[in-house]
């Protein structure tokens, strides 16, 4: 008799009650249908929106759903806690805004049962067509997503930890997420950098998830890029033991030079700030007219906000910022 496939699903969350309930309903239905032996580990940080009570109410203490609270609202700690407490060797890291699409678990099972070793497999992010058709912002986000019809190698800076799966025993104790890296967006890149350096393979698979991005417009999204430059990048460079500077953004290597910093800060005041405000406004008011869509303009705006964030470093401690207090969201 063939033993049923065993899987631990780890979902970090915080104050997203509606999203997590929707995701859990889909996962329970699909995994039961596939006849997997599974557990779902919710890693929260004492959400204030009633997440725990709602899960308990809807799923009535279902033994397959485990709920853990981590004091620090730190996505690396949440993922590490989930991995360390998982019962099964097959692990899926899934963000609470990622809904698995057709054949997702069939593809996941085929790769985790394959002979491909020391590998992290990622799913592809997709955006709903109705959103793409009515919004240039969502059209841009979808174009940024890497797509493939076959197993494709990824570089470390293309890792998709919001939807990735692997064998737990291959990670060992050396390859957990770095919990000292604060802020938005770089703990996953640092993790992938270490994995690649230690001969791990990073793959993009045919599996797909509907990434229900919480940033509903370009104005909200650029704040993440500002925060990434101002808070997350200094935290990464300070707390990573690896020589990663300049390997994510070449700009960071140049920014070490005090004269470059001076010139960039002058340009920030004279050019970057006013230009970013104008461009942000333009892309917002033309968002619903695809005639005005320009992928280049979106990328220019992201770069401008990254530069603005870099120029504002050291003016405030990371721990005192609103962004840090909001956690990884």
Q: Report the biggest beta sheet as strand number plus sense, adding barrel if it closes.
A: 9 strands, mixed
In total, the number of domains comes to 2
Average pLDDT rating: 91
Which runs of at least 5 residues are low in confidence (pLDDT < 50)?
A: 318-329
End-to-end Cα distance, whole Å, is 44 Å
The CATH superfamily of the largest domain bears the name Spore Coat Polysaccharide Biosynthesis Protein SpsA, Chain A
Helical stretch tally: 13
Examine the secondary-structure arrangement and name the CATH architecture of the largest domain: Alpha-Beta Complex
As a whole number of angstroms, the C-alpha radius of gyration is 20 Å
The secondary-structure element order is: EHEHEHEEHEHHEEHHEHHHHH
Choose one word for the global shape: globular
> How many strand units?
9
What share of residues is helical? 40-55%
Question: Could you provide a short overview of the structure?
Answer:
This protein is α/β, with parallel strands linked by helices and 329 residues long.
Task: Write out key terms for the chains shown.
Spore Coat Polysaccharide Biosynthesis Protein SpsA, Chain A; 329 residues; 9 strands; alpha/beta; 16% strand; 9-stranded mixed beta sheet; globular; 2 domains; 13 helices
Can you give a write-up of this model?
The chain is α/β, with parallel strands linked by helices and 329 residues long. It folds into 2 domains: 200 residues, Spore Coat Polysaccharide Biosynthesis Protein SpsA, Chain A, CATH 3.90.550.10; 108 residues, no CATH class. The protein is 46% helix and 16% strand. The chain contains 13 helices and 9 strands. Strands 1, 2, 3, 4, 5, 6, 7, 8 and 9 form a 9-stranded mixed β-sheet that branches. Helix 1 links the parallel strand 1 and strand 2. The longest helix has 28 residues. The protein is globular.
């Amino acid at each position: 008799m063939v033993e049923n496939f065993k899987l631990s699903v780890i979902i970090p969350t915080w104050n997203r009650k509606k999203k997590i309930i929707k995701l859990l309903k889909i996962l329970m239905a699909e995994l039961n249908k596939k006849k997997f032996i599974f557990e779902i580990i919710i890693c929260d940080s004492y959400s204030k929106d009633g997440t725990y009570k709602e899960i308990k109410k809807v799923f009535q203490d279902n033994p397959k759903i485990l709920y853990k609270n981590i004091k620090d609202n730190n996505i690396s700690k949440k993922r590490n806690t989930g991995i360390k407490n998982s019962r099964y060797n097959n692990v899926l890291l899934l963000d609470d805004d990622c809904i698995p699409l057709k054949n997702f678990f069939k593809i996941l099972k085929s790769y985790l049962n394959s002979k491909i070793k020391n590998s992290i497999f990622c799913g592809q992010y997709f955006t709903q067509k109705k959103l793409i058709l009515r919004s240039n912002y969502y059209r841009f986000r979808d174009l940024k997503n890497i797509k493939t019809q076959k197993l494709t190698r990824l570089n470390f800076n293309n890792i998709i930890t919001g939807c990735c799966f692997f064998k737990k025993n291959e990670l060992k104790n050396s390859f957990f997420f770095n919990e000292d890296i604060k802020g938005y967006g770089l703990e996953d890149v640092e993790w992938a950098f270490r994995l690649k350096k230690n001969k791990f393979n990073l793959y993009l698979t045919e599996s797909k998830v509907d990434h229900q991005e919480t940033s509903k417009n370009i104005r909200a999204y650029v704040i993440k890029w500002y925060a990434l430059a101002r808070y997350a990048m200094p935290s990464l460079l300070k707390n990573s033991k690896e020589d990663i500077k300049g390997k994510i953004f070449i700009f960071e290597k140049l920014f070490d030079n005090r004269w470059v910093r001076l010139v960039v800060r002058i340009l920030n005041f004279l050019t970057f700030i006013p230009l970013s405000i104008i461009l942000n406004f333009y892309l917002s008011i033309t968002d619903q007219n695809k005639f005005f869509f320009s992928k280049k303009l979106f990328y220019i705006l992201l770069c401008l906000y990254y530069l603005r964030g870099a120029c504002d470093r050291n003016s405030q401690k990371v721990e005192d910022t609103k962004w840090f207090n909001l956690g990884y969201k």
